[in-house]
Amino acid sequence: MLKNTLVLVGLTLSLSVKAAFIDLGNITLDTNTSLEWLDVTETAGRSYNDVFTEINSTSGLGKQGWRYATTSEFHTLVSNWFRRNYSGGRSYTIGTDEEIESFIKLFGDTQDWYYDNSTDPNVYQFDIPSYAAGRTRGILGDTFGFGQQMGLVSDMEIYYRAAPHRNTLHFDSNDSIDDEGSIGKYWTTTYPSSNSATNAFGSYLVRTTEIPLPPSAVLFTSAIAGLILKKRRSLGLSSIKTVVE
Asked: How much is the pTM?
């Protein structure tokens, strides 16, 4: 039997560390790694060199502290999101359709951005409806052969833009996660960003942030301290002892 114990009623708090992603608008925080990820569509249509120059400057993305994510960080992001170990390559079974779509919508649907911003009628005729997903495709900081490594999470549910209710499916590929190394420097570094294939992808940029103590944790800690102080005063003790019989 325990005596002189404090009973806390109505205070429930879980401080266990678990996978958690926080949507901050065009930024997503992975609390597992304390990394913030910029929406990939924020850099869509820009070459690797263009983005690299800005993140190494004292203005814009550089001033904000962004840098290119490594391939390893992309692997970790995918592993944390799908709660499965991902070490690279292509996989069609790592996540469910819902998990794939949610990832794309949160981190930026570059395929939808490509369709919406294209002036080519042969491209613009296609669309990714709000209830579907295209793909998140971005440049990573590591090189691969003569080009840059790419990271891809794909669903590719494409519809005809002019179809009634956008329910005429044109193409629906298998869900996939892939490290693409086939995008050479011709596309990622030197090719003009306007009216080019670079409109179909962006860049994975990250920055480290400090994760503050959640308000619930502060409330819990304050409540504990207050109850202990009150108990000590009522008992006239300098400390509280728990007696076990």
From this structure: 0.74
